[in-house]
Amino acid sequence: MSVTFEISPNPSPRTDAEVAELVKDPGFGRYFTDHMAQIAWTKGQGWHSAKIVPYGPIALDPSAAVLHYGQEIFEGMKAYRHEDDSVWLFRPERNARRFQTSAARLMLPELPTDLFVDAARELVSIDARYVPPAAGEHSLYLRPFMIASEAFLGVRAAEEVTFYVIASPVGPYFAQGVTGVDIWVTDRWARAGIGGTGAAKCGGNYAASLIAQYEGYEHGCNQVMFIEASEKDRVEELGGMNVFLVGANGELVTPALTGTILDGITRDSILTVGESLGLKPEQRRLSASEVFSGIADGTFVEAFCCGTAAVISPISGFVTDKGEYRPQGQGFATTLQIRNAVLDVQYGRTPDEYGWLQRVV
């Protein structure tokens, strides 16, 4: 699907000096680039009116369906600057395919892969100066999202939809850096249920996770891990990340995709990279009791969580209302080996043997 983007330059962009200062210490999700991508969809007409426009507020009718029925989806991806000053996207076609899966579940139109990727490339290209230098773990975080923008009150699929991409220069997701995080474990609250929207990347899943997230904060934890709601034993994922365990014999274990767990791009990359490092990837049902007993007897020696925003973060312990479970491998040797291997591909420090990178600039 070939589409030409109409470009409307921002009349008041930041100066080069302002951008250079901003990307030194951007934090996470605090600042945004000068432009955003926008594409409209209308029933009967399909996708049309592809634009790059100045970043700014979105005008919505108060009756817009997204505000009342939550019909929306989003993605998270990054652009990386390499040492030679080139800029690259990491596996954008995988994000496009997951975006299509989310759209189908939420009864939204599916955006073609090439149009999704083109929108990201156009935005990164015009705002390339916001991609931070290769030093450190800075990058340009991209947030594609789609909303039901039709002005209509009624429970049905929207017939007018708008797709956007915005971008934000970012540093590490966890301000404390690459240190072990504690995870609160809950079977009281559910992020998603069987037959629900757990496999879709939609805002409702994250809103549903917040009550448990804040419960975790009260117990000194950085994130929360959910236990499947009905049988209250199967491990699912964290509020915003997938979870892995490293076995004493080189097993790399993560919960199988059951329809309640997000199919993470970082998760998939770890399974591939882990195997190349000599580990033995396993995707299977993983019960909470197996996790806790396995940590106690040394079957599982490390644990980590992963996602586009945080990449890979070591887990120092799982905290429950009945006690704490801390893996023996608090040096996180295998976790950091996997983490560095993924980052080395993303930042171009090692050859991309997997064909995951797409050059933009």
From TrEMBL:
Which reaction does this enzyme catalyse, per its entry?
A: L-isoleucine + 2-oxoglutarate = (S)-3-methyl-2-oxopentanoate + L-glutamate; L-valine + 2-oxoglutarate = 3-methyl-2-oxobutanoate + L-glutamate; L-leucine + 2-oxoglutarate = 4-methyl-2-oxopentanoate + L-glutamate
Which GO MF term does the entry hold, naming one?
L-isoleucine-2-oxoglutarate transaminase activity
- Enumerate the cofactors the protein uses: pyridoxal 5'-phosphate
Q: Which domain of life is it from?
A: Bacteria
**What Pfam families does UniProt report for this protein, alphabetically?**
Aminotran_4
EC number per UniProt: 2.6.1.42
Please give the biological process terms from Gene Ontology that the record holds. Answer: isoleucine biosynthetic process; L-leucine biosynthetic process; L-valine biosynthetic process
Instruction: Give the metabolic or biological pathway.
Output: Amino-acid biosynthesis; L-valine biosynthesis; L-valine from pyruvate: step 4/4; Amino-acid biosynthesis; L-isoleucine biosynthesis; L-isoleucine from 2-oxobutanoate: step 4/4; Amino-acid biosynthesis; L-leucine biosynthesis; L-leucine from 3-methyl-2-oxobutanoate: step 4/4
N6-(pyridoxal phosphate)lysine occurs at: 201
Keyword list (alphabetical) reads: Amino-acid biosynthesis, Aminotransferase, Branched-chain amino acid biosynthesis, Pyridoxal phosphate, Transferase
SUPFAM superfamilies for the chain: D-aminoacid aminotransferase-like PLP-dependent enzymes
PANTHER family in the record, alphabetically? BRANCHED-CHAIN-AMINO-ACID AMINOTRANSFERASE (PTHR11825:SF44), SUBGROUP IIII AMINOTRANSFERASE (PTHR11825)
NCBIfam families found in the cross-reference section: ilvE_II, PRK13357.1
Which family does the record claim for this protein?
Belongs to the class-IV pyridoxal-phosphate-dependent aminotransferase family.
Protein name from the UniProt record: Branched-chain-amino-acid aminotransferase
From what organism does this protein derive?
Propioniciclava flava
